[in-house]
């Protein structure tokens, strides 16, 4: 493990972080603040939360692999190449001969927030089967990270549950970011039920303030609402608050770490950048999760990663390097 401490931030770990789920292409209007219908043109922006997390880890000097299914098409090959170019192992990728790689059209509103329209009927990522999983790769991980989009339909749901079970049995830390995308679910009720169906398996969970409201039904983003999501297997529960930073909850302590004020252009990938930063700093030393001073340093680093990611368009091009993050921390 790298031993250097910058601003109290531990070095990036060398343990493998495996990210499971969807990778797709976002088509983003060339002009901000317009509806999809009004957009004069679109730019291709590779994305998908689990893939973003894997690249975020790699960009910070960590070791990452992606597990998921892409279409055997131009876009699928392009996405596999992007992972490889960014130092993420593609050993866990399979290609579907019949289904296309998923696409999403994303509008950036004037405030940098997003609206989505998805093309997935069905897309390749939904068709990953349990027998296509590289179980050895999953067992070799120190952290197994996933979202909830892979729970929406079979056979991907069964593949997701199998991968989690194999990781858990191998003693891998389970990390969960539900990454709520309501338009993809049959109903809000189904989304809530399925997101919560695997809740008590994860040891590390990150939700946004909006997801906290959705899952608890509370309109108060407070400690009481957050702690209603606590379960005995959890080591760390995180609630991200956008530019305000994040709140953290463990068995023995809780608190808040302030965010960074930057000029936000596009919030895409900020949460994924935050998660990748956190995971690559605790992968070799999970005792950080129970040590509040060290955890606060790591969360400040993760907040800085998330903030930098909002200053450029698109998720993957905006994911920062360690040097960029330490620059922001030193200037703070």
Automatic annotation (TrEMBL):
Its EC number is 2.7.1.4. It comes from the Eukaryota. The keyword Zinc does not apply. Pathway: Glycan biosynthesis; starch biosynthesis. It is an enzyme of class 2 (transferase). One of its GO terms (molecular function) is ATP binding. GO terms for biological process: fructose metabolic process. Keywords: ATP-binding, Carbohydrate metabolism, Kinase, Nucleotide-binding, Transferase. CDD domains: bac_FRK (cd01167). InterPro entries: Carboh/pur_kinase_PfkB_CS (IPR002173), PfkB_Carbo_kinase (IPR050306), PfkB_dom (IPR011611). Residues 16-321 form the Carbohydrate kinase PfkB domain. GO terms for cellular component: cytosol. It catalyses: D-fructose + ATP = D-fructose 6-phosphate + ADP + H(+). PANTHER family: FRUCTOKINASE-4-RELATED, HEXOKINASE FAMILY MEMBER. May play an important role in maintaining the flux of carbon towards starch formation. Belongs to the carbohydrate kinase PfkB family. This is fructokinase. It comes from Carya illinoinensis.
